[in-house]
Amino acid sequence: MKKKKWIMLLAVICFAIVLVPIPRRLRDGGSVEYMAILYRITKVHQFYENNSQNPYRDGIKIEILGKEIYSSVSKEPTSIPEEKISWDAITENGVNEELLWSQVNQADLATIAQILQDTIEEEIQEERENPELVVQEGWVRIFEKEGYRQVVEMGEKAAKPLYWILYKSKNAGLYEYLCSHALYEIMELNMQQANGEFTWSNAKEFLEQFNQEMRSRKPKDFTLIDQERKEVSLSEFYGKPMVLVFWASWCSPCKEELPSIEAAYQKYQEKVHFLAINMTSWGEETIENANHLINEKNYHFPVYFDLNANVEKAYQINYIPQIRFLNKDGSVYQSSQKVASEQEIIEVIEIMLQK
User: Could you tell me if 198 and 62 lie in one domain?
Assistant: First the structure.
């Protein structure tokens, strides 16, 4: 009888392991101690200082457990041009490596690689100390870590360095997963299935879908309700840069951010369209409560209401406050997914006005 119980217990454990999708590395012969892929970053400035054959002209080398994943490109990197080259041009026929490399800011590349390495090491340490975390939560927890959020909050300037790392990597571990998910967030891609699962399982699949998505991407348009209860479309504001602010009257961080929005609006209202989009589709909010806060604080920026979740779906807004800085054609220039200060908002606006 005892033997049967042991057999049944083992069967249940094996069945559970098969069904758990996130920690699948356990099934591939890995161990809890090495659940995450660890990258080593080595500075090589001194070694190649007087060597014309330097294959790492960005001054860094990235290795995985001693195995090099960076390979050289055929030309010296050029400074990033003021007019950024589009993703269409870079991904038109596969990947134009030279063009991509010319768009990668090498300082940002080194910073991002280091931050994510530190994040991975933090995850490894936690998994070593408590292996049950892997089975209970898998990799989901890592998206809330400070390092990962720091990279995502870098916005568009982190996009091409992240793409470069993925493009050059020949592996498919936590590091690649972290890079692809960060790029997914930054570029606000639509790469989820109906059940919420992501449509890619490794870096190669992600890049193929990313290229397809970016080539077919068009500025989003949607309908809002203004304070006079009239419908307006985002496309009506094309021609000037736009600042879309997502907020609600019950949201304390939103209320902390709104004075900065008002200050920026007072300074740039003639040059930039401001749309303070109230998340009225969320059950906790009402038009009355939103208007009460606006009137009480004497804010003057235009307020719009997302009654039917049009904007929520278009931009996949799952939490607030958030800001989308849009180009004149409605395409996303940069995002802020934290409480933004007046200075941070102004800095982005100034860059958009120079484009």
Answer: yes
- Assigned token pair, 267: 């300074």
Q: Show the domain range for 36.
A: 20-216
Query: Do 191 and 227 sit in the same domain of this protein?
Result: no
> Could you tell me if 77 and 168 lie in one domain?
yes
Residue 205 shares a structural domain with residue 237:
no
- Answer with the one of 181, 216, 251 that is the final residue of a domain: 216
Residues 60 and 149 in one domain: yes
pTM of the full predicted structure?
0.49
Burial of 77 (0-12, 13-18, 19+ CB in 10 A): middle
238 closest CA partner among 198, 213, 275? 275
Q: Where are the alpha helices (DSSP H) in the chain?
A: 2-19, 87-90, 97-102, 106-129, 132-137, 146-153, 159-168, 174-187, 203-216, 252-268, 287-297, 310-315, 342-354
Task: Please indicate, yes or no, if residue 135 is contained in any of the structural domains.
Answer: yes
In a domain, 2, yes or no: no
Query: How would DSSP label each residue in 140-159?
Result: GGGGGSHHHHHHHHTGGGGH
- In a structure prediction context, what are the per-residue pLDDT tens digits for the chain, which is 355 residues long? 445 555 555 554 444 333 333 332 322 333 323 233 333 444 433 333 444 444 434 444 444 444 444 444 434 444 554 456 777 778 777 788 888 888 888 788 888 888 888 888 888 788 778 777 655 555 677 888 899 999 999 988 899 999 988 888 776 777 888 899 999 888 877 777 766 677 888 888 889 888 877 765 666 788 999 998 999 999 999 999 999 999 999 999 999 999 999 999 999 999 999 999 999 988 788 999 999 999 999 999 999 999 888 888 877 787 899 898 988 888 877 778 789 999 999 999 998 898 7
**What's the structural domain count of the chain?**
2
Q: Does residue 132 share a domain with residue 98?
A: yes
